[in-house]
Amino acid sequence: MGNGKDKGKCKPGMPPVDPGEDGSRFRVTGPCSDEITAQCIRAQYQIPSGTKATRGNELGIFQGLNQHYHQEDLDTYWKHIAPWVPRGTHPKLKSINGALGPTNNRSLPGDEADLDFEVAIPLIWPQRSILFQTDDECYCTLSDYNHTGNCLTPACRDPEYPNPNAVPEEGGYQGPLMCGRYRPTSVISISYSGTEASWPARYMRRQCLEVTKLALQGVTVVESSGDYGVGGARFDSRAGCLGKDRDAFASGGGFSNVFARPKWQDRHVQGYLEWANVSDQGYVDSTWLLGPGLDGVGDAGAATSSPEKGKLFNKAGRGYPDVSAIGENFRVVLRGHLNRMHGTSVAAPIWASILMLINEERLSAGKSTVGFVHQVLYEHPEVFTDVATGSNPGRGGDGFKVKEGWDPVTGLG
């Protein structure tokens, strides 16, 4: 699975660094152009410090695939980089089917888990966060979703569910399955996932319908989309500055082979295709498309169709990403080290935090949460700051170019 970030130079098993009494080893001294912290994010996006903590409006963050945060890393970050957050602050654990939350093993904390909370908590404080933790492995068998394929190899089989490695002292999780056990938060951030080609289309259709149900309840799900140019997918870049910026590294993005383009995206995407003069490089294939928009009524049997020879993308597919946020050089404490991390795993919790803060103000004014916010964003592109130049090359291709307005590199901005 694409993890949506560069893990940098931090490697498991590295001994923790003694910060010394003055914490000099954790001191961030560079400008925001070189070292990103919560203060930089607040300044760049004009995010005020939080003052409210409405009960029930906590920020939800999903973790899975053996990603577990380490409290000592968080406390070190609070002490030296985000001192307005009290030491000992941590997310409230909502464990699903016996999943482990934090880890006490210094060599085991997941970079995704530490990163998510070190990005989000300083932005939303004094509001709290909730950790939705699963330990079940990802599904990769195709036959369970009415799709045939070679599922004879162990790597292609479904994992046992619930994960037999959860709650090992009890021989695995023995309780009832916990689907629907917890009340969802108004915003849920997911920082890592797989590429579209990694999943059967029926599986993705089911996931989309479940997210749609959440949206109808006023829940916004923010998902990153990868960091590997047009060969992967992505949610962010160094976008949204007060002035025009340059796309900092290969932002994923493009057009779906599974989901049809919704009507509220037509004007922006069609405008981009005409501006970029790439229509002759695209094909139109609705064989597998699920759509339009959220309807998901198509009968898809595969994750991707077979494009015309020499054609590169499906012009009829949903364009992505929708929006962007800074995703480079974020300073993180991981396994006792001060490191830099990059990618959409930085951008997703930033956007989730912004939406949660908006919900906080709306709730205090007696209004509802924003829920399905996409259409409103496309109706008001003027609120975004565009990335002026750049592209998202990947897998040997040049990728798409950036333009003012929507583009498949940084979205609306």
From TrEMBL:
The active-site annotation reads: E112 (charge relay system), D116 (charge relay system), S345 (charge relay system)
GO molecular function (one): metal ion binding
The Peptidase S53 domain extends over 35-413
- Tell me which SUPFAM superfamilies the record gives: Subtilisin-like (SSF52743)
**Residues in the signal sequence:** none
Question: What are the required cofactors?
Answer: Ca(2+)
What's an example Gene Ontology biological process for this entry? proteolysis
**What superkingdom does the record give?**
Eukaryota
Q: Which InterPro entries match?
A: Peptidase_S8/S53_dom_sf, Sedolisin_dom, Tripeptidyl-peptidase_I
CC cofactor note: Binds 1 Ca(2+) ion per subunit.
Write the protein's name.
Answer: Peptidase S8/S53 domain-containing protein
Q: Which organism is this entry from? A: Achaetomium macrosporum
> What lineage is this protein's organism placed in?
Eukaryota, Fungi, Dikarya, Ascomycota, Pezizomycotina
